[in-house]
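Hi R.,

Here's the chain you asked about this morning:
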Amino acid sequence: MSRKVRFTTVIGVLLVYALMVPMLVAPRALAYAPYPLQPADAEIANALNYLRGEQGADGSISDFAVSGWATMAIAAAGEDPHTWAFGGGASIVDYLAANAGTAAGVADYARMVLAVVAAGEDPTSFGGVDIVGLIEGAYDGTQLGNTGLLNDDFWGLMALIAAGKNQGSEIVTNTVAFIKTNQNSDGGWSWGVGADSDVDDAAAAIMALVAAGEPQASTVIQNGLSYMKSMQMDSGGFESWGATNAGTDSWGIAAIVAAGQDPTGTNWRSGNDTDPVDDLLTFQNPDGSFSWQAATPLNVAWMTSFAIPALLGQPYPVSVLQQEEAVSVYVRVEGQDATFWSGDVTVIESLIVDDQGGLRYLDDPTVLGALDKAALAGGFPYVVRDFGWGLAVTSVGGEGDWDTGPWWLYRVGYEFAQVGMADFILNETAPPSPPHLEVLFYTSSTWSEFPLKISLNIQSIFVNQEFIATVTYYDDAAEAWVPLEEATVHSHQDYLTGPGGTVAISISQIGTFEVYAEKDGFVRSDKADITVVAMPALPPPAPAPEPTPTLIPTPTLAPTPLPTLSPTPTPEPTVAPTPTPEPTAAPTPTSVPTPTPTPADETPTLPWALVGGVIGAVLVVGLGGFVVLRRR
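And the predicted structure, written out as tokens:
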């Protein structure tokens, strides 16, 4: 065979191989629409139709628990649960509201909050129940609900986030820490503390942590996903009790999505090239419902409610209210003889311990919460007593006595409030009207003390320079600041204010000094700073300027012509018979005229004649010397 024929044959084989390779490695055909599915896709539409067909006359689907999960599925599909009503009667939301009081335990409360938020309702007032408050009431300072359980923490945390709880709040951060602490060494979590991991609870933990702000790429989340991957079976689903099921697959898929991954991606394909979504769809029945397992059609409405959000790519919580905002406020705590503390605090919520050891969780940014944050920052104690009608502060820093006084009062923006510290919500309660920028706590012996304020006309002075301090007090009746005479102003020494509440102060030392005011029957003022600096050194005197010479116009002068010199020609020496010749005398130079001096009363002129005379003299002497040298 010729070389050309062999070459052509090889080319042909390569072309055939190139055409076959794409067919050999072609992407697998999907039995469903690309993930995530859409509400109009048959798998979702059929599942929703099944649930609708299961709704009872009272609005329920199956029972109270399943109705909660079904409400989330309906909302995840973009439908309004309020419109889901059997025969135009009660809706599924109506059913949940009518039975809100039957919820018991954190897990029940959490499911209710997730469903209520998904339906667009207020979980703090639903069916006459503050469901969020029930969850918060189960908080012990470290975790939610039963200390031996973990699943109530997973779902309780998701519910708090759904209700708008700030991710930086104490209840959220402490619950997150509790969940992380109880992650098993295999990366998974269990339903209970110390129990073996399972995919259902690992998935719930991942969703809860991500919802609370845990980075998707964190070690905690990645270890959780690794555990789930280790539990994946050849069918693509996740093992639970030796086999896969629709519920475990659904939560596993939702957790993968929450962690920012694609459950149909290559890293989630099994050895049979199937993924969790493939496995979940094997449990869907012809009527659109999902069975727990193919051979075990239990909890069908329940499993269908789980499958819909998972196929739509909607992890829990499916809806989240706007996150509550933290409130920053300036706090000042004035004791009888000194200021305990002053500074800025940020309040979201607070956990208050009363004098009997009871816990009071305040889920709003309150004045009492601001005191709690200040005490933590300032390191001073305070005591709260529950009087039945509410909480009251009985002492701060060891000062105060509820029976005999002094008593602890507070003002917001220097104004009296009409409610107790635990009931005043910052930036919400009025009077005084928001925004609330400052809270003053102080001891009172008469309940009639007015707060003082001091202001300085300048903040920085030179040594011995005067500045003016003005002291005023807030008159509650006039609702205005009034000048205060004979108030003591403390600086490097004490001063008394005069008429108009002012006093002039000067300080002879360099430094920064606190200035504040006091007077019996008034609340000590806040402190203002005055900075004293050295007087700058005076610069050396500038040198006296040199006198500028007066330029005199130069008149046009006719220069005196230099005299014409007629040098005596040098004769050739004559050789005399006598050995010593007589020297010839040097010629006498022509005299140079002497310039006429300028009279003293006349304006001097440039002495061109003198210059000419000098030059002439130089020439004469030079020529004379030249003649002498030549003659020698």
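Confidence is low (pLDDT under 50) at residues 1-29, 556-632.

Let me know if you need anything else.
M.
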